[in-house]
Amino acid sequence: MSQELARKLKAARAKLKMSQSQFAKHLGMSVRTLQAWEIEQTAPRGFALSALEEKLAQILAE
Question: Which tens digits make up the pLDDT trace of 5-19?
Answer without folding.
Answer: 999 999 999 999 999
